[in-house]
Amino acid sequence: MKELRFHRDLYLGEAVDAAIRTFEPWAELLREATDSHWIVRISARSPAAERRVAGELANFALGLTMREGLRT
C-alpha cells in the first residue's frame, strides 16, 4: 500500500477528490482527513502499479489545484 499526504494549505480538497475519482478504475483509493492533510491510501495489483497511480494522482491533484488557484 502506498500513501500520499496532501497538505491542506497547498491543495484544494476538491482537487484531491477529483483526482481520486479519476484514478479509481486503476486502484483502490481510500481518503482520510486530518487537521493538516488529506491522506490517500492506494492499493493496486502490484507495487509498481501503486507507484504509477500515486505519481499520476499527485500530479493530477496539483494540476487541478493550480488551475483553480492555491489557497492563501
What would you say this structure looks like, in words?
The chain has helices at residues 13-23, 47-68; strands at residues 2-7, 28-33, 37-43. The chain is an alpha+beta fold and 72 residues long. The longest helix has 22 residues, at 47-68.
Topology of helices and strands:
Blueprint: E1 2-7, H1 13-23, E2 28-33, E3 37-43, H2 47-68
Antiparallel strand pairs: 1-3, 2-3
Shape: globular
In total, how many beta strands? 3
- Helix-and-strand structural type: alpha+beta
Largest sheet: 3 strands, antiparallel
Termini Cα gap: 32 Å
Give, in order, the helices and strands.
Answer: EHEEH
Mean pLDDT score = 94
Beta-strand residue percentage:
25-35%
The strands making up the biggest β-sheet line up spatially as 1-3-2
Helicity, in percent?
40-55%
Rg, Å, rounded: 12 Å
Instruction: Name the poorly predicted regions.
Output: none
Number of helices: 2
